[in-house]
């Protein structure tokens, strides 16, 4: 409404003014709605902004001249090495990004870390239906569920085994177009990867170390808080003991506490229970009970509920309204995946309606949101944050060139957007910086600089589930980090080479 | 504003109602802004709508099950044969689509027709810099500008010549990704094609026949009016006579009149002068003079001005404000290409500001419009029509999967959209139906049927440059055709096979 009034006011003015004055006025009006546009910058921030804009323009120009060198338009499997040489990426890795609000339990760490866990003792492998299963066993008590072979033996006997193993632990391929002709093939590969790593990760010693490492990688990437979605698979011991959902939440909480003790600047982590959407009415009842149990045991840590998995394939939110209402009554909030689809008018698209009607606090992806103008307006005016995961949407084949991602419009129009990594470990990413980079370079205007990045960081805290006290603490920590970052940037501490120094 | 008030009203209501009633209310509210949603359908139209929706759902389901079979998500060079077997496409070809408001002089006819013109006498060819040039000469007076060889001789002496010739007359390739890795390569091929066909088309007998054929192909596709952009290359005779811009406009007007005499249901055609944007201040002055001359000579036929060519490469509107203001003072309207780009914040993107400030009547492509919220709101509220050319944007590499085309959002949000073919002959299309098909199947919801198609046809007339009397005539003719079409559809005249009949 404000936008329309401003637009009309501006257009009325235009009939009297000088062309170039009017043009500048209209451009300013247009930018006024961008995420971050209302932020005032300090003197130092203004210098940092100019520095970043200068670098951004140079990188854009390289891409403009040769689009094969423009990462945001390329598939991430191809763009990653280019991104890693970018001065803007360097800056973004150092920038205090606040928090990570959308990522999944089994894909939280870098692929390198997880691969290194396969050198642990007592790890067995079994190849079935094209999927490689992994599991730790006590050598005296190996399950007969599959033809389990010691991984160490496979390693020694098969020449290309490491390549093979790595390919099973991630969906990265040399030629993504050939490997995944359509969305169905890539989702199949994605789900197979989950099945491969689950037995490796849910071994208790790995599980604890894995989650600790996940937090460490976030902190290394200057992210100080996370909300993790997990489906709580049973964790196991070598002696066969299984840890149930409540105990697994306990492990998460414990590791978080330990990590915070080790790194006192880290704000923490919270948990969103997110079982697979492939449920029935019966299993959904069981999910309700699990949620109630873990919520009542860990009310501060378990902040809400979601359903996950390939949305297009069915099990829409609308099928489980009574159960979801019951979940809501147990406390916490909804953080639903909704509209992660290009199939306009299908059930996955209509999930957006249910997510909003069920009063979701944030939406996962909401890729199709803008195709629903009234709904989009409601999401915006009610401040329901949209968790945008650019690389995920590209890798899982919703969009190729990220300049066509609908979040570009959301960012320009001031939607409550946060940018998150989804499943970074599965596609060779790590932390938030890769997603922030492609969003910054591909989804914002050439003239958009530090204000956007700062607001994105602030959004990631203010749209989190932290309570008022925690949020104040998080913002305080972020402010310290931010000022340090700006100081460092202004003092040129992040670049050791003249090439960059001379652009300031 | 209305949208926001409705959204708020709806959300207030939601707190009191039954879940499923509220959900339905919200969905209805969301659809209310879609193009065509306010149209009331007659009883027959309602039957036709149900018939179309049934077929649409079937085709969508085929694509959903196997995305390799979903044309709107595939490159047009691959999807064309699939489209041609579609019952929905069959219906769209028969549907009275009103008018064609965005297409260019040298690409107006099907490739087949133009290729057939190469069998005329006295056509010579010359290969230079990878571009094949064509020109007719009197055998006694061949230009020495190039090493011209009689095409007939080349035909006889080179085995793969027909393949070669066809490849030079269009940008269609077996593997478009390999042939055109980036936007730069495809624009190069596109411009080479222009250079190849220009000497063939501007030969007076071909020129007249070509434009007549263009109108015939539109009429065959149930399009009864066109606004053609042309840059008025000199037309030539075999005896060396050159026809200047004013004479060339005269030829267009003459052919249009002749065509209307031959087909009395055809409403007509008008002309938008659209020289290449690669101008200098001096040549732009010359364009001003040409425009003034042709506008004063053919005020009813020449309706306005545009600048064309790869927008990203420069020559933005902002460089020629004084000249453009002078053009405006000569009468007619602006129909600027603007924002045909993915480079957010670059000069091509900012063309959108100038186009609106210069009071353009319609915008060509405006692909980047939604990234400028205030501008977009102004375009919408002022009824500046957006000429959407989906296949062009795909083939010229702005977007791969047309479900990601921003027009999907514009259509949902009730922008003044028309759908047009741009350069159909260059990529193997013909008429408007291919573009309408991919828009209908890829950019609208599963539940969107006849209302959208009807409104799109009406838009193409109401957003044309026809004066009030002409427009009334065009609408009257369209109504006759529309009623015939609906009658035929309801009587099932368009399908000879049971497969389709049984779905009603």
Automatic annotation (TrEMBL), chains A, B:
Q: Which part of the chain is the Adenosine/AMP deaminase N-terminal domain? A: 14-92
Alphabetically, which GO biological process terms does the record hold?
Answer: adenosine catabolic process; inosine biosynthetic process
Q: Where in the cell is it found?
A: Secreted
Signal peptide as annotated in the record: 1-17
Keyword annotations for this protein, in alphabetical order, are: Hydrolase, Metal-binding, Secreted, Signal
Provide the reaction this enzyme catalyses.
Answer: adenosine + H2O + H(+) = inosine + NH4(+)
A GO molecular-function annotation: adenosine deaminase activity
Cellular component, GO annotation = extracellular space
Q: Which InterPro entries match?
A: A_deaminase_dom, A_deaminase_N, ADGF, Ado/ade_deaminase, Metal_Hydrolase
What single Pfam family name could you report for this chain, choosing any that match? A_deaminase
Keyword match Signal? yes
UniProt cofactor(s): Zn(2+)
Where does the UniProt entry say this protein principally localizes?
Answer: secreted
Has keyword Nucleus?
no
Q: What class of enzyme is it?
A: hydrolase
Residue ranges annotated for the Adenosine deaminase domain, each copy included? 186-471
E.C. number: 3.5.4.4
Q: Which family does it belong to?
A: Belongs to the metallo-dependent hydrolases superfamily. Adenosine and AMP deaminases family. ADGF subfamily.
Q: What is this protein called?
A: Adenosine deaminase
Question: Native species of this protein?
Answer: Phyllotreta striolata (Striped flea beetle)
């Amino acid at each position: 409404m404000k936008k329309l009034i401003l637009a009309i006011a501006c257009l009325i003015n235009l009939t009297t003014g000088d062309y170039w004055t009017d043009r500048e006025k209209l451009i300013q009006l247009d930018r006024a709605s961008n995420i971050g546009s209302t932020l005032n910058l300090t003197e130092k921030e203004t210098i940092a902004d100019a520095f970043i804009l200068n670098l951004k323009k140079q990188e854009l120009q390289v891409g403009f001249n040769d689009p094969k060198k423009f990462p945001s338009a390329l598939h991430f499997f191809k763009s990653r090495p280019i991104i890693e040489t970018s001065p803007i990426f360097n800056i973004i890795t150092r920038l205090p990004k606040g928090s990570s609000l959308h990522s999944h339990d089994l894909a939280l760490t870098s692929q390198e870390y997880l691969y290194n866990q396969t050198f642990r003792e007592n790890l067995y492998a079994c190849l079935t239906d094209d999927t490689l299963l992994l599991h730790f066993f006590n050598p005296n008590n190996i399950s007969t569920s599959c033809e389990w072979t010691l991984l160490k033996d496979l390693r020694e006997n098969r020449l290309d085994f490491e390549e093979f193993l790595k390919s099973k632990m991630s969906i990265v391929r040399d030629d993504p177009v050939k490997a995944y002709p359509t969305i169905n093939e890539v989702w199949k590969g994605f789900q197979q990867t989950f099945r491969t790593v689950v037995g490796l990760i849910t071994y208790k010693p790995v599980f604890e170390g894995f989650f600790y490492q996940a937090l460490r990688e976030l902190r290394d990437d200057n992210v100080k808080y996370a909300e993790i979605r997990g489906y709580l698979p049973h964790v196991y011991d070598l002696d066969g003991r299984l840890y149930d959902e409540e105990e697994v939440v306990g492990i998460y909480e414990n590791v978080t506490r330990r990590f915070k003790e080790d790194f006192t600047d880290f704000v923490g982590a919270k948990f969103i229970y997110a079982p697979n959407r492939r449920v029935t009415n019966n299993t959904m009842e069981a999910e309700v009970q699990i949620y109630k149990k873990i919520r009542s045991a860990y009310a501060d840590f378990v902040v809400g509920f979601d359903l996950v998995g390939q949305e297009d394939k069915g099990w829409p939110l609308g099928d489980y309204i009574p159960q979801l209402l019951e979940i809501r009554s147990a406390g916490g909030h909804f953080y639903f995946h909704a509209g992660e689809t290009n199939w306009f008018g299908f059930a996955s698209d209509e999930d957006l309606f249910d997510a909003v009607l069920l009063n979701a606090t944030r939406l996962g992806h909401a890729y199709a949101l803008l195709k629903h103008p009234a709904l989009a307006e409601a999401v915006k005016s009610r401040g329901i944050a949209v968790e945008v995961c650019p690389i995920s949407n590209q890798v899982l084949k919703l969009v190729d060139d990220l300049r066509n991602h609908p979040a570009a419009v959301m960012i320009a129009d001031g939607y409550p957007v946060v940018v998150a990594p989804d499943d970074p470990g599965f596609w060779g990413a790590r932390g938030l910086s890769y997603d922030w980079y492609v969003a910054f370079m591909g989804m914002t205007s050439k003239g958009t600089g530090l204000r956007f990045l700062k607001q994105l960081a602030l959004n990631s805290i203010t749209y989190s589930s932290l309570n008022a006290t925690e949020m104040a603490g998080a913002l305080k920590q972020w402010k310290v980090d931010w000022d340090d970052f700006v100081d460092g940037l202004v003092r040129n501490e992040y670049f050791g080479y003249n090439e960059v120094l001379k652009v300031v």
